[in-house]
Amino acid sequence: MRNVAIGDEVTPGAGDNASYFCAREMGEMAGWLHDLGKASTAFQDHIKHTKAEPVDSALAEQFPDDNAGGQTVDHSTAGARVADSMGGLGRLLSYAIAGHHAGLPDWTTKGRGNLRHRLTEKYIEPTDASVLACATRSRRLQSPKIKPSEGSGAFSASMLSRMIFSSLVDADYLWTERFYSEGAGGRISKQFDPAAFTEKLDKHLRQLRTEGAVNSIRREVLSACRNAAEDRKGFFSLHVPTGGGKTLASMAFALRHAAEHGLRRVVYAIPLTTIIEQTSNEFRKIFGNSEVLEHHSAIDPEDQLKSTPAQRLASENYSAPLIVTTNVQLLESLFAAKPSRCRKLHHLAGSVIVFDEVQMLPVGLLHPTLAVLTELVRNYGCSIVLCSATQPAIQFRESFPIGLKAVRPIISDPTTLHQRLKRNRVKIAGRLENDELVHRLASHHQVLCIVNTRRHAADLAADLPQAIHLSANLCAAHREQIVAEIRRCLSQGEQCRVVSTTVMEAGVDVDFPVVYRAEAGLDSIAQAAGRCNREGKRSSGDVWVFEYDRKTYRAIDMVSDGIAMFRQIADRYREDLLSPQAIDHYFRLLFWDRGGEDGKGWDHGLGGMSVMECLDGDDRRRQLAFQFATAAQRYRLIQSTQTPIVVPYEKGEKLIKSLLRMPPEKLSASWIRDWDRKSQRFSVGIYEFDHRKLLDNTTVMECHGRWVLCNPRAYDLTLGLRRDAIGMSPELLVQ
Question: Could you tell me which residue ranges the HD Cas3-type domain spans (predicted)?
Answer without folding.
Answer: 13-174
